[in-house]
Specification:
Structural class: alpha+beta
Number of strands: 8
Number of domains: 2
CATH architecture of the largest domain: Alpha-Beta Complex
CATH topology of the largest domain: endopeptidase fold (from Nostoc punctiforme)
Helix content: 25-40%
Distance between the termini: 53 Å
Shape: elongated
Strand order of the largest sheet: 3-8-4-5-6-7
Radius of gyration: 21 Å
Length: about 350
C-alpha cells in the first residue's frame, strides 16, 4: 500500500481521536495545563523505583511540612534516585549528605546495625528527619515554610535565617523551584487531571511530520535534516507551543502530572520501559492521540507513524505536560557555593 494511502487509512481509523482533540480544544479554553484538582499526598504509581516507594511513603509523614511526593522530588533532584551518587564536593548517596552532616542524622533503619549513607533504607529516613529539623529551625522566617525548609537543606539554615527567607543564591532558588514543580509530578491525583490547553497544537506538529524518517539523537534541526528520535519529536512538538520539556524520555517522565490510564487525553505523553517497576528504564515516548493510539518515532529504519500503545509493550504510564517544568538537567550533582560540612545535607545537587 502506498505510504500516502496508508496514512490516509490510519488517519481515517483515528478520526474519532481527532474529534476528541477538537472537544479538548474547546474545554481547555481558560484552563491552565499546570492546574490539578484536589490531590492527595501520595506517590503517583511508577514515579519512583519500586524498591524505594515504601521507604519514601513512610518517611514522607515525618512532619507537617513533609510529604511523600515532596521527598521523592527532593531525592530525584539530589541524585536521580542513585544510591551511589557522589558529587564533586563530596556529598554522598541518594540524599546527597555531606560527610560532616551525615553522622548527626544517621540512624540504622534496615536492621543491620550500620548507618550507611549509601543505603537508601538509612539515607531516606535521615533526609526526612533532617528536613523536618530544618523546618523547625526556620519556622519563624517569613514566607512559605516548605520553600524555606528546602532552601535550608540546600544552602544551610544559617543562609535562610540571614536572608530572612530563600537566599539570593541562584542554585538555591532553582533548587526550591525545581522541587516544588517536581512535587506535582510525583503526586498521585485524587481527582481529574486538568486538560492541557496546548495539546491540540502539539499533536498538529507531530501529525504534520508523519512519514519523516527516524534519526537516533535527532531533534528536527537543520543538521538533522528535520528528522527526530522519539523524545526529540515530543520535545519539539511541545516546544512549538511554548512548553519546554527536557530532551530525553526518562526526564520527560517528570515534566507534568501523571495521568491514570482511564483519564488519557490527546496530547498526553505516553511512556514505555524495559522494567515497569523502574522508571529509570524508560526508553520510549509518544504523543497520545486518542482511541488507544499515539504518534511516535519508534526506531531506526522506521518513520514517524501511528502506533497502538498496547502493541508497543512495556507501557508504564502517561504525563500531561505543564506550561511550567523544572530547569533541566536534575539529579546531576554540581559544586555548590555553600558545600560545607555545617551546611545543608543536600548542598551539592
Amino acid at each position: 500500500m502506498p505510504r500516502r494511502r496508508l496514512i490516509w487509512v490510519l488517519g481515517g481509523t483515528l478520526l474519532t481521536p481527532f474529534v476528541i482533540v477538537a472537544v479538548v480544544a474547546l474545554v481547555a479554553v481558560g484552563i491552565s495545563g499546570s492546574e490539578l484538582q484536589a490531590q492527595q499526598a501520595t506517590l503517583a504509581t511508577g514515579t519512583v523505583p519500586a524498591s524505594f516507594a515504601s521507604m519514601i511513603e513512610a518517611a514522607g509523614s515525618s512532619c507537617s511540612q513533609m510529604s511523600a511526593p515532596l521527598l521523592a522530588a527532593q531525592l530525584y533532584q539530589e541524585s536521580a534516585f542513585d544510591p551511589h551518587a557522589v558529587s564533586p564536593a563530596g556529598a554522598q548517596g541518594i540524599a546527597q549528605f555531606m560527610p560532616g552532616t551525615w553522622p548527626n542524622w544517621a540512624s540504622a533503619q534496615d536492621g543491620d546495625g550500620k548507618r550507611d549513607v549509601f543505603n537508601p533504607a538509612d539515607a531516606i529516613p535521615a533526609a526526612a528527619r533532617y528536613d523536618c529539623a530544618l523546618a523547625r529551625q526556620v519556622s519563624k522566617v517569613p514566607g512559605d515554610q516548605i520553600d524555606n525548609m528546602l532552601a535550608a537543606y540546600n544552602a544551610g539554615p544559617g543562609a535562610v535565617l540571614a536572608a530572612n527567607g530563600v537566599p539570593s543564591i541562584s542554585e538555591t532558588q532553582n533548587y526550591v523551584k525545581n522541587i516544588r514543580i517536581l512535587e506535582r509530578a510525583f503526586t498521585a491525583p485524587s481527582g481529574i487531571v486538568a486538560v492541557s490547553s496546548v495539546a491540540v497544537r502539539a499533536i498538529a506538529f507531530a501529525y504534520d511530520r508523519l512519514g519523516t524518517p527516524y534519526l537516533w539523537g535527532g531533534t528536527g534541526s537543520v543538521a538533522d535534516h528535520g528528522e527526530f528520535d522519539c523524545s526529540g519529536l515530543t520535545q519539539a512538538a511541545y516546544a512549538s507551543v511554548g512548553v519546554a520539556i527536557p530532551r530525553v524520555a526518562a526526564d520527560q517522565w517528570y515534566a507534568g502530572p501523571h495521568v491514570p490510564r482511564g483519564q488519557l487525553q490527546p496530547g498526553d505523553l505516553v511512556f514505555f520501559a524495559y522494567n515497569t517497576n523502574d522508571p529509570s528504564t524508560i526508553h520510549h515516548v509518544g504523543i497520545y492521540v486518542g482511541g488507544g493510539a499515539m504518534i511516535d518515532s519508534p526506531h531506526t529504519g522506521a518513520t514517524i507513524r501511528f502506533d497502538t500503545i498496547d502493541g508497543f509493550g512495556g507501557y508504564i504510564g502517561a504525563v500531561r505536560p505543564y506550561a511550567q517544568v523544572p530547569q533541566w538537567p536534575v539529579g546531576q550533582p554540581t559544586s555548590s557555593t555553600s558545600a560545607t560540612a555545617s551546611a545543608g545535607a543536600g548542598t551539592t545537587s
